[in-house]
Amino acid sequence: MPLSPEQQAEIDALRSDPQPTLRTVAPGMEKHLYQARQVLDHGFVRVIDYMGDDAAICQAARVSYGKGTKSVQNDEGLIRYLMRHWHSTPFEMCELKLHVKLPVFVARQWIRHRTANVNEYSARYSILDREFYIPAAEHINAQSQVNNQGRGDVLQGEEAARVLEILKADSARCYDNYETMISSDGQAGLARELARMNLPANIYTQWYWKVDLHNLFHFLRLRADSHAQYEIRVYADAICDMVADWVPAAYGAFEDYRMGAVTMSAQMVDCLRRMLRGETVTQENSGMSAREWREFEEVVS
Amino acid sequence: MPLSPEQQAEIDALRSDPQPTLRTVAPGMEKHLYQARQVLDHGFVRVIDYMGDDAAICQAARVSYGKGTKSVQNDEGLIRYLMRHWHSTPFEMCELKLHVKLPVFVARQWIRHRTANVNEYSARYSILDREFYIPAAEHINAQSQVNNQGRGDVLQGEEAARVLEILKADSARCYDNYETMISSDGQAGLARELARMNLPANIYTQWYWKVDLHNLFHFLRLRADSHAQYEIRVYADAICDMVADWVPAAYGAFEDYRMGAVTMSAQMVDCLRRMLRGETVTQENSGMSAREWREFEEVVS
Amino acid sequence: MPLSPEQQAEIDALRSDPQPTLRTVAPGMEKHLYQARQVLDHGFVRVIDYMGDDAAICQAARVSYGKGTKSVQNDEGLIRYLMRHWHSTPFEMCELKLHVKLPVFVARQWIRHRTANVNEYSARYSILDREFYIPAAEHINAQSQVNNQGRGDVLQGEEAARVLEILKADSARCYDNYETMISSDGQAGLARELARMNLPANIYTQWYWKVDLHNLFHFLRLRADSHAQYEIRVYADAICDMVADWVPAAYGAFEDYRMGAVTMSAQMVDCLRRMLRGETVTQENSGMSAREWREFEEVVS
Amino acid sequence: MPLSPEQQAEIDALRSDPQPTLRTVAPGMEKHLYQARQVLDHGFVRVIDYMGDDAAICQAARVSYGKGTKSVQNDEGLIRYLMRHWHSTPFEMCELKLHVKLPVFVARQWIRHRTANVNEYSARYSILDREFYIPAAEHINAQSQVNNQGRGDVLQGEEAARVLEILKADSARCYDNYETMISSDGQAGLARELARMNLPANIYTQWYWKVDLHNLFHFLRLRADSHAQYEIRVYADAICDMVADWVPAAYGAFEDYRMGAVTMSAQMVDCLRRMLRGETVTQENSGMSAREWREFEEVVS
């Protein structure tokens, strides 16, 4: 369990004191506020703040004086239209602030999404905790044989055991030595900004991360995708659940037009039309490479 | 008065219905929510939503589990430290959403600040209202003789009257012709996306504008500055008042370290030290150009 | 013709003086450098500088020491893979700088693309030229009846003539009055920053615009689209021609996977599969709204 | 020495083949192209491409048809004016592309500068080399006693030796185990995307990094500053040397108005004026906190 009693007490205190506001309130999101949803062995995602809801998307799209909603049905139709036709600015009018605890190698992928605001725990200034990501047995996989950038089957038996042992032992030893080096007990003590270089990439860090809904959807489309690395996908999945409660209409449109959608190239659309007219289309007469044809077949069958 | 009774009624309705929330509430900002603060003759600025407060800046800087505040005094010290040392990311953790009505030539300056989210009223889709900015007599100035990019003295007498007359007459005629062209009364009616090209730059447009506090401070530093054009400065001044109520500690630090601050070049710092040691420094022995020396003298005298 | 003899002479001088460089050179783009390609009646697009070529995309994707190319065929395959799978960062490694002259109402759409660098001619500092966009007769259309945000048929006869007359007369009168107001002949002369508000949105402005290839493709996908307003589409079309000469492999991938591609929603993919299995699918049993169904039919038929 | 003979041969090949171009050429930068400037024990910075020069800054600021230069002196004056008055967009018209090899803990600081383009070597896809940053003896410092976020004195004797030994031993062991885990010799072999988590933060990575001159100056101001961590400062210093050769006028202005400049708060300016009038000002009557007063004294004495 990633939270100490003191941390849980701080969260409980925050949740016990509702205040009146004139701003838009999203009841589905209020229930998530401050709660730590566990991800991986020591990580979590917590909603710290949010701005806007489904109606706020419509309000901005209509540039209106009041709430800008007409009816729930009308609003949902507008939101689906905006998503379908790649209107991005109304979705930017909602904002989400998260507190995330995550392994450094996951943080390094995550930070590549540049249109967001980040405050990370500083290992120059502070001492990192002894917390490392050690994968569960069912998530220790072999290198994929078909995709350089992916995993194959779950490792079995002795090999899996050896991997686990290595990860645990190296983490522990590196952290012991980190502590030894920064200790000022009987020595000067190495600067933290230097000592941290001895820590492996499965150590946990944490940050505050703030992002607008348009850019969050972009993040989720890439990171909740089946090709994303498992260790970042579980964070994206957790955030998906929260967003579905926060802006249900926008999230529904996102599922239909982004997550579950397929982009077909000019060649694919052409083949499709020929097939619907009854023509027999093969890779040879498709104008596609073998790889593209394989991707096409996955879509249509 | 820029708001119709219907618009005012919508605003009143929004202000009459407080909801409980677990999020951070900034009482100083709640009082501004939805209210239209008049700017220029037909423009306004309205706060539509906000995220965070002074404590949220500290909470993110400390990456803490709870509110992250220690004491008001501690927090203010931290905020001043962050501002003084150009830490930008904690200020990005606060967000502001405004509804602004403004002349097009002001909007064209404003939009140059790219790190913000915008939904503008569409003149492709909708018909613009007959509202034009006509300057008050005391804001009709001659071209500056010393600064190509600025104003000199207020115009007097006949010349001022002529300017006013021209602006009013051309606005009215252009709008009449805009209406004539789009009318479908006895004719097909010109497309709105084309007709709008006949409208001069003093017509009012409106938009939703969302920005984080760091980028808002950057906007305010440039646009609330005495060298900014008067017509955008009055918007920046109005926003300054709101921000001072929203995040008083951050705004105080902004005033001391940005608005009221002076950046001295390497040469200026050198001259300053020589002067404090009792040396007589003139432009000739300062290493500065005439222009830089003039700017230096303004600071130190 | 938009260029004066002096301007053409400056361009000719720039084109007459090749210099040796060790950087990547794209021969297809060298021929465009500095040339003004006319767009609309007084506008143009000119390539001022560029960085990178097709091979530079591969070099960055492979993070290699040398050119990073393997063979032209290999490179093209990689570029198509990157485009198909939404890898954006390698395309960001190419950069284009343009000088564009365009009507203000087009500039207002264009500037909404925020991830770019812009220096616009300043009407605070300088006097604008007397150049206005007056549409050719075949581009004066009625408001669309089916799409609020679009054009219908070309206007005919008297109505078209009336529109042209209005646009010309109002432009001329507004500019005459602009000149009258800023004149310092026998009067103080109104500040330029104020006088400009009298100028309608069809006046030409100009800017330097610099953008990376990924964001340029995003711009082109939206603005070279058939739903974009004609007056910005012609600029996008002109840029497409230049990009096709600059990075032919990347442009080809862009055409196949973006411009000519179709994104199908989860519902559309489902219907497609049913149709390919021989099922008769109608809007009623499709799970789509009437509007979505119409868009689907356009794709598959 | 960080480059293999093959890598050096690739670089030599690139430098042996100048091509004619009509673009702006900066001779001072041509000499750096592709050369690997060593930084730290195994790192480097290499210029891969550049766009623009000092004249290109002026050309954009003047939105001109030709080169936009008037005279070298005129241009330098304009560039200094633009820098002094915080005009950012003309500097964005120059672009630099670097290939950098750097330890992961340096990369983590560097990537916080979001307005740049990055392609990093992928440890999901490829195997990382056995190269770790091991500080030279004179750069192994104790934790600072006055600044949580900094270093104190150089470590001496046995303690320094112990630190070095730990860093070397842990790096070697972690890399040995990384190799053991991914090996497919007699076992399936762990996925690379998992195995990398065992590698400490002093391992080297590399990336292509592209940035405009305005944002590069911002990076350099923060990272070439004496308060920046030594290990990133040496990269910034290396880049400063290259930029000084590339855009000498802009770099000179940057040195005078950014690197060597001092920002004085409203209170500091007030005290300064009092001191110049002969008044004795102390912290007590200065209106500054003890910390601000200390920073003030550092500037003026």
Explain what this protein looks like in three dimensions.
- 4 copies of one chain form a homotetramer.
- Chain A is of the alpha+beta class and 301 residues long.
- Chain A has 3 domains: 5-133 and 202-259, Gyrase A, domain 2 (2-Layer Sandwich); 134-200; 266-300, no CATH class.
- Chain A is 45% helix and 16% strand.
- The first copy, chain A, is built from 12 helices and 9 strands.
- The first copy, chain A, has a 5-stranded antiparallel beta sheet with strand order 2-3-4-8-5. Chain A has a two-stranded antiparallel sheet with strand order 6-7.
- The longest helix of chain A has 26 residues, at 157-182.
- Chain A starts with a helix and ends with a helix.
- The model of chain A has no long low-confidence stretch (mean pLDDT 94).
- At the A-D interface, helix 5, strand 6, strand 7, helix 6 and helix 7 of A face helix 5, strand 6, strand 7, helix 6 and helix 7 of D.
- Strand 9 of chain A pairs antiparallel with strand 9 (262-264) of chain C.
Layout of helices and strands:
4 copies of one chain form a homotetramer.
Chain A lengths: L4 H11 L3 E3 L5 H4 L6 E3 L3 E9 L2 H9 L9 H13 L10 E9 H7 L6 E4 L20 E3 L7 E4 L2 H26 L9 H4 L8 E9 H11 L6 H17 L1 H12 L2 E3 L1 H11 L13 H11 L1
Antiparallel strand pairs in A: 2-3, 3-4, 4-8, 5-8, 6-7
Helix pairs in contact in A: 3-4, 4-10, 9-10
